[in-house]
Amino acid sequence: xxxxxxxxxxxxxxxxSVYEEEDFMRINQVMLAKPRDERAQDxxxxxxxxxxxxxxxxxx
Length: 60
Hints:
The protein is mostly helical. It has one domain (2-49). The protein has four helices and no strands.
């Protein structure tokens, strides 16, 4: 969702008056947002998505 807000700000030209009224921390969070394909991913989820597994089960 942050990436969508960032794109709206950059591409739709949010007025300075609106920018100044907003919470700086939230603006910074939005501006640092990355698209889904550039975000860090859980290593185990990445392996699962690639059809790989680590380790195995031990049967007693």
